[in-house]
Amino acid sequence: MITRYSRPDAVAIWSQETKYKIWFEIEAHAATKMAELGVIPKESAEAIWANGKDATFDADRIDEIERTTKHDVIAFLTHVAEIVGEEARFLHQGMTSSDVLDTCFAVQLARSTDLLLGGVDRVLAALETRAKEHKYTPTVGRSHGIHAEPVTFGLKLAGYHAEFQRAKRRLTAAREEIATCAISGAVGTFANVDPAVEQYVADQMGLSVEPVSTQVIPRDRHAAYFAALGVVASSVERLAVEIRHLQRTEVLEAEEFFDKGQKGSSAMPHKRNPILTENLTGLARLVRSAVTPAMENVALWHERDISHSSVERGIGPDATIHLDFALHRLAGVIERLNVYPENMQKNLDRLGGLVFSQRVMLALTQAGVSREDAYAAVQENAMKVWRGEGAFIDFLKADARVTLPHDQLEALFDLGYHTKNVDVIFERVFGEG
Asked: Distance between CA atoms of 326 and 307, rounded to whole angstroms?
């Protein structure tokens, strides 16, 4: 995790302090249920909670113990015994390290996803506001980076809003899939721990029960989770790339907000660079880098191995913290985005009406000209405009193959024709016209 690209709330979820607090809660909740089942004394479970619930677990002390034990959960339990006292002997009855580690990981990923969903909501709100602001602001649509036909800037943003609605659904589904609890003991058979303990811990930690845990929670869940994060990161990047293109000097239809005192270049004082959206492209790559290792973690040996462990200690915090940061950075970019309608119109007019070529071709076919002949006539005149030889409408009027009356031909160059269904699309996206 890179501190530069992190927010405190996201970092806190992955702190040693938080992790050890979750570990204790898992162990203590299990003890509570075991006491209810008569496995351990009730007063011992109560003492564990009383002595440990407000304790601060010393990460340095746990590290010191682990240097001898070479086992993090044993080191933790040893330190808990130093705080709780002799009643700590009733902790971890019939449990394995994976019961604690996997359940804790599920809690951390679920909490991280709640933050991610909050970030998506902020992006959605920003996109909706700006889309409605520019609902009818005309701009040119591009395919292959080349002028195609007119759209509106609001429609562009509405499309991204629909994409982030899907992102929200993906994250919600990923959270549901990842938020599972396993307290099933060695090789997952519940031989030394009652399944009721697992259900109780799951309820207390806000998780569901893993049907078959084999000592570890199956990693297909984690693969799906990190894949979902990768898709959301790609959506972040797609919007970032759009803004980066629109900010190019030759285009300049939209631009990241440039603060007073901000510097764009150490060498060139005139520069205003799209640094935030370029950063978002880089962060998206970081998040996606977690996907392949998560996929490779699925194929563990038999009932349990730890080849996944070192991977998840890295990708868990890295992917969630960086995506959390990216979502809020993206929202800030959209909220403060400078939009230049006059440049949009200027670029729209740059090819002198060539963006209306399809409508001219279709009108010719409706007037009785074959599609092949109509296409040829329109294309040949369009190429003259590309070469800078004159105006498209003038060439069309002078071409005997273009059999349309001049007033009808001029009417085809109507920008409003291309925006007549904006309300329909907005209703699909936002539920209103």
From this structure: 29
Contact 201, 33 (CB under 8 A): yes
Tell me the H-state helices in 179-308: 195-205, 220-246, 275-288, 291-296
Residues in the chain: 433
Among 79, 112, 234, 265, the active-site one is: 265
Residue 57 falls in which region: left (phi positive, over 0), alpha (psi -120 to 50) or beta? beta
Write down the residue that tokens 């060539």 correspond to: 354
Choosing from 144, 266, 270, 302, the catalytic residue is 144
pTM higher than 0.85, yes or no? yes
The string of pLDDT tens digits covering residues 257-315 is 998 898 888 899 899 999 999 999 999 999 999 999 999 999 999 999 999 999 999 99
Task: Output the six-digit token pair for 322.
Answer: 């960086």
Q: What are phi and psi of 189, to 5 degrees?
A: -100, -5
Question: Is residue 265 among the annotated active site residues?
Answer: yes
Q: Which of 408, 379, 409 is nearest to 394 (CA)?
A: 409
